[in-house]
Amino acid sequence: MPAPLMQLDGLTKSYPGVRANDDISFNIGEGQIHALLGENGAGKSTLVKMIYGLVRPDSGAMTLYGAPFAPAQPTEARLNGIAMVFQHFSLFDALDVAENVALGMENPPPLRDLARRIRTVSEEYGLPLDPTRLVGELSAGERQRVEIVRCLLQDPRLLIMDEPTSVLTPQEVGILFRTLRKLASEGTAILYISHKLEEIRTLCDEATILRGGRKVATCDPREKTARELAELMVGQILTPPERPARAMGDVVLEVDNLSLKSSNPFGTSLKDISFQLRAGEVLGIAGVAGNGQDELLLMLSGELRAPRNQVRLRGKPVGHLGPNGRRGLGVVAAPEERLGHAAAPDMSLTENALLSAARRKRLERGGFIDWGKAEAFARDIITRFDVRTPGPHVLARALSGGNLQKFVIGREIELDPDVIIVNQPTWGVDASAAATIRQALLDLAGKGAGVLVIRQDLDELLEVADSFAALNEGRLTPVRPAKGLSVEEIGLMMGGSGDMHVAHEAAE
Amino acid sequence: MILGSINPAVLLAALMVAATPILLAAIGELVVEKSGVLNLGVEGMMIMGACLGFIIAVNSGSPFLGFVGAALAGMVLAALFALLTQVLMTNHVATGLALTLFGLGLTALLGQQYVGITPPRTPRLDLGPLSQIPFFGRAFFRHDIVVYLTIALVGAVWWFLKYSRAGMILRAVGENHDAAHALGYHVKRVRLMAILFGGACAGLGGAYLSLIRVAGWTEGMTVGAGWIALALVVFASWRPWRAMAGAYLFGGVVVLQLNLQAAGVRIPVEYLSMSPYLITILVLVLMSSGKARASLNAPGSLNKQFHASG
User: Are B99 and B77 in contact (CB under 8 A)?
Assistant: First the structure.
């Protein structure tokens, strides 16, 4: 066991109404890859923010190499050799790679020298980057490289990684792991935050599991099964979703050779998309973020209009219809962004329910809203999908991500659609809520609806999908049956590893 | 020939003078918006600068003190805006509009006794032989120092935003305040400084109107210059040199239409008076359209409330 690099002792942090971290203690050794495991809301990010100086603990202490360590702000943490790769929130689209890197450094060299160092370091660790490109134009994997390179340039002693693989293809994950192992072998400690159990079992030397703000266990993840870890994390026994046997029906939704320009200047245009969705089928679409998922959802929901004949519902052209027209015919959608796209943040749940269900559920009469009916409908969703909230009068923004997601998906499912399109339905949702949502989608398919799930998490996708396709730079691969597909095959369908390559053998 | 009575050198000279107040206000607002704050109170800060600069210059007899006072007056109003929007978290748009109305009202009161007075003259900068060059001397080298300082300021802002680390941090804050906060930058402090800078520039622009361009005080004398400055910033895609081109274009059309009015062209005066606004906006729209990338220049966090979490 190497000497502890950092010791956490009794860290506690409360926010009004929540105890985010309660008496958390563990050690991180030099050169150790230490996993921090827990569901959303378990207190992982609060803990990391304390280490990085963004949040001050209410009580408890940290030591770094035996000396007391209490960073008042990130600058101080960085000066002490602590670097962090954020899950999101830390890159600037309109600035170029070198500027983004410079912003994360304490005393950056002039930009020209920095650009040279970026090239050297990124080559050395197998993460090639062009320092002059605008970050807004980079893929998700490349953006992550920017963050990692930014950290590496500061010779960190402790590198914190917050869910780094959620945006990567399996091949890219492999390369990232090799980079991390190389770093660890050079003595850098890595605090690796994730809820992907298999990853942690392959990568990490030690794991600390948090649940509800408390430490549940510290263990060697390689000695536990994924199931044991999951149960420690969730605190209950998990059951995989039931899949009622069902027959596939006729084609309900059909898209033909459709190319469509993205409405977002940094977006990905759809190129030559064709597929068919049958009644009772769950079609899973995988792909690394930014490969056209958002555009595909917009095109199917009607927010982006398509040529009339290239999108057909039961043979009837619907391409020219907007979201309301399509919803009227039974095509509903739940986009990825919950606040601001799927739900209006400052409106109550009743109002949000009304917004999408007004027509199909007849919540309005002669142009007037039937508030009684609308509220009853919102209550229905809340009970059926176990949305934890005081009532339908609560503002959408006041709900936690998982609860709002249950509400948003529940709202669409309650419309008895013929086709439902969901993007990242369980993103940032805790395990039990995710299970509820998956089950609801499967039940809907069992009732004969066509379900199209866009998702980056392959394990989850394979758990629910009957058939499978991947989006890669706006193109959709041919649809294949999900049964018997290996993760490697899927990775290739998703576009493989791009230009990432493994760090030079000589350097290892 | 009516147009023959217009001297191009005089026209160019007048254009630079007409453009300066708007350019000052616009360059200040450009920095404010680059930091992610939309301050619609430019008109209010300008008229404060115009009024207080005038009062101070008349009472002290020094135009220089007038300009200093005007910058401070603009900053005071901007500080009020910063207090409301950055500390008390009020809505940017409503606060900015209120600031404009407040500035217009307050200056109408303060300036009551100063209507019809002539301010002390601001000396022309002596550029020696340069001002003797035929045509060019008359057009470009016989101005007061503020005209040249304003151009220097545009250059300085351009350099600051493009090459300095502080400028990069300012852009970062405006582009994504959550990310900037996560990296440990002080979003509010950066914005406060930008807002104060914007206030000072707007105040100077106002004083230029009352002390030099018009050389007199009347109630509401900015007549929308602050709004034009705001529009310039957007249509110039937040680029300093483009904002300057826009301001000079606007100034040029203003001067030209005044000359046409004086020359008695048979176009109704109302059309001539509205022409600078129409033409400037039209040209800037044409400049910023067609390129999808132009819109990308808008700071990503512009006009979004920043709540520090945790």
Answer: yes
Listed range (A50-54, A401-405, A473-477, B86-90) with the worst mean pLDDT: A401-405
Measured distance CA(B141)–CA(B144) in Å, rounded: 9
Domain boundary among A236, A261, A280: A236
- B182 interfaces chain A, CB cutoff of 8 Å: yes
Residues A217 and A314 in one domain: no
Q: Residue A225 to residues B69, B233, B236: CA-CA distances in angstroms?
A: 73, 59, 60
B310 pLDDT exceeds 50? Answer: no
A260 and A182 co-located in one domain = no
Nearest to A103 among B183, B295, B297 (CB): B183
A273/B124: higher pLDDT: A273
Q: Does B278 touch chain A (CB under 8 A)?
A: no
pLDDT digit string, tens, across residues B247-294: 998 888 888 888 888 888 888 888 888 888 888 778 777 766 655 454
Residue of A nearest to B298 (CA): A94
Given a contact cutoff of 8 angstroms between Cβ atoms, the answer to whether A164 and A195 are in contact is no
Using an 8 Å Cβ cutoff, are B171 and B34 in contact?
yes
Task: Give the CATH number of the domain where residue A155 resides.
Answer: 3.40.50.300
Same domain for A226 and A263, yes or no, is: no
B114 lies in which domain range?
Answer: 3-125+137-297
- B113 DSSP assignment: G
* Residue range of the domain that includes A208: 4-236
pLDDT at A508 over 50: no
Residue A89: the pLDDT is: 58
Strands A282-286 and A450-454, by their bridges, are parallel
On whether both A274 and A354 belong to a single domain, the answer is yes
What was the pLDDT predicted at B3? 57
Please indicate, yes or no, whether residues A273 and A218 belong to a single structural domain of this protein: no
Are both A231 and A260 inside the same structural domain? no
**Distance (Å, whole) CA A436 – CA A444:** 12
Within a domain: B192: yes
Q: Are the CB atoms for B55 and B114 separated by under 8 Å? A: yes
**Can you tell me the distance from the alpha carbon of B162 to that of B31, in angstroms, rounded to the nearest whole number?**
12
**Is position A505 within any domain?**
no
Q: How many domains does chain B have?
A: 1
Residue-wise pLDDT tens digits, A346-366: 899 999 999 888 888 888 888
Query: Is A242 a member of any domain?
Result: no
pLDDT at position B2 is: 52
Mutation target for A interface from B162, B183, B189: give the one with most A CBs within 10 A: B183
Query: Domain for residue A483, yes or no?
Result: yes
pLDDT of residue A506: 33
Does the beta-carbon distance from B176 to A54 stay under 8 Å? Answer: no
- Domain presence at residue B307: no
Q: What does the pLDDT look like over B163-193, one tens digit per residue? A: 999 999 999 999 989 889 888 889 999 999 9
A320 and A364 co-located in one domain: yes
As for how many domains chain A has, the answer is 2
Does B177 reside within a domain? yes
Nearest-neighbour CA in chain A from B31: distance (Å):
16
Find out whether A97 and A129 touch, Cβ atoms under 8 Å: yes
* CB–CB contact B169 A103 (8 Å): yes
Provide the sign of the torsion angle of the four alpha carbons A140, A141, A145, A147, taken in this order.
positive
Query: Are both A255 and A225 inside the same structural domain?
Result: no
CATH code of B223's domain = 1.10.3470
pLDDT in tens, A71-110: 988 888 888 889 988 766 588 888 889 999 998 887 788 8
Of the candidates B198, B57, B43, which has an alpha carbon nearest to the alpha carbon of residue B106? B43
A312: in domain: yes
pLDDT digits (tens, 9 = 90+) for B133-163: 888 888 888 888 999 999 999 999 999 999 9
Which tokens is B144 given? 């007061």
Judge: B183–A92 Cβ closer than 8 Å, yes or no. Answer: no
